[in-house]
Design goal:
Blueprint lengths: L1 E5 L4 H12 L6 E5 L8 E4 L2 E4 L3 H6 L4 E4 L3 H13 L3 E4 L11 E2 L2 H4 L9 E3 L3 H17 L1 E10 L6 H10 L34 H14 L5 E8 L6 E9 L5 H9 L4 E3 L11 H4 L5 E8 L6 E8 L3 H18 L1
Parallel strand pairs: 1-2, 1-5, 5-6, 6-8, 7-8, 9-10, 12-13
Antiparallel strand pairs: 3-4, 9-11, 11-14, 13-14
């Protein structure tokens, strides 16, 4: 089992290597791939040193599975070339997500739709993944008609530059102009913009949550109104979600459904101040849900607080879970 990790030297790529090892994915040969600038570097995996190579060299090695996390431009150019040599590609960029010929997969929701014919599979946006892992079981029970979501997204979602800028502003890292991710300071601040703005006034990140929700749940009638915000946090993404259902619900049933849902950990004990926080989600694969309460202003509406490590379930773990499905069916 030859496994390529494209973008192996990046923040998410490093996390993918970590998750592959933790989940004991049967890697017999690791093929770490990155840009020509990083080619020649050494990466240690499972006690062995591997040399980072270029995408062209990676294709020549004909891996069985390639997990991409190197940005949309790299995925657009190289994912088809890996697929042409019989390699199954799991892509973490936004490049293929809305391509009607490619599947957009959260294993807990639609993993059973993957077939042997799928050679390029898209990994959803991190914020979409954690929201839908929590909401899908409720959608199956009551039918969602509308979602209003505000996100509080970690600087790790911007990669190493975001982490470096926050650390330098806190005086614990080197201050370098080339390692600034944001126009404004992020420490002691919130930035109500993730990705570029579109003509609609929504950012691309916000529209991803709309479009990906429709595709993954196979229901374009669901209203989705998102606001995405960057916050000075490194543990994970948080979301305040207000969801309106088509059918009435009982709060006790909501708690039961969520506590029984794969990939979800219920943390809702307000009497003891227990609720999800990114500080405690870091390094974990589950989606944590709490602060569950009815919306008193509207019928059949529920408020939830959803937190998850964006580098793990929001990226690396979800991608490796897809690779595990491919392993079983191919």
């Amino acid at each position: 089992m030859k496994v390529a990790v494209v973008g192996a030297t990046g923040l998410v790529g490093s996390k993918m290597l970590e998750v592959l090892k933790e989940r004991e994915f049967p890697v017999t040969e690791l093929i770490p791939v990155a840009s020509e600038r990083s080619a020649g570097k050494k990466i240690n995996f499972n006690g062995c040193d591997y040399t980072v190579i270029t995408p062209r060299e990676g294709v020549a090695k004909r891996p069985d599975i390639a997990i991409f996390s190197a940005g949309g431009d790299v995925s657009r150019e190289w994912a088809p070339k890996f697929a042409e040599v019989g390699c199954r590609v799991v892509d973490n960029s936004s490049c293929w997500r809305m391509d009607p010929s490619k599947k957009l997969i959260i294993p807990e929701i639609n993993g059973d739709s993957i077939t042997k014919e799928d050679f390029i599979i898209a990994n959803p946006n991190c914020s979409t993944i954690q929201m839908l892992v929590a909401l899908n079981p409720l959608h199956k029970a009551y039918g969602i008609s509308r979602i209003v979501v505000s996100t509080y997204q970690s600087v790790t979602g911007t990669g190493q530059k975001g982490v470096s800028q926050l650390k330098s502003e806190r005086g614990v890292g080197e201050s370098r102009p080339d390692m600034r991710a944001y126009k404004y300071p992020i420490d002691l601040n919130l930035i109500p913009q993730i990705d570029s703005f579109t003509e609609s006034g929504y950012t691309k990140e916000e529209l991803k949550m709309v479009n990906e929700t429709h595709k993954i749940l196979s229901d374009s009638s669901i209203g989705v109104s998102p606001t995405t915000v960057r916050v000075p946090v490194m543990g994970g993404h948080s979301e305040s979600v207000n969801v309106e259902f088509k059918n009435e619900f009982e709060l006790a049933d909501i708690f039961k459904i969520l506590s029984d849902s794969p990939g979800v950990t219920l943390q809702d004990d307000t009497a003891n101040q227990i609720y999800p926080m990114p500080l405690f989600s870091e390094g974990k694969d589950d989606v944590f849900v709490g602060r569950i309460r009815r919306d008193p202003s509207r019928e059949r509406c529920l408020n939830l607080w959803i937190v998850s490590d964006n580098l793990r379930k929001g990226a690396a773990t979800n991608a490796v879970q897809i690779a595990e499905i491919l392993l079983k069916i191919c």
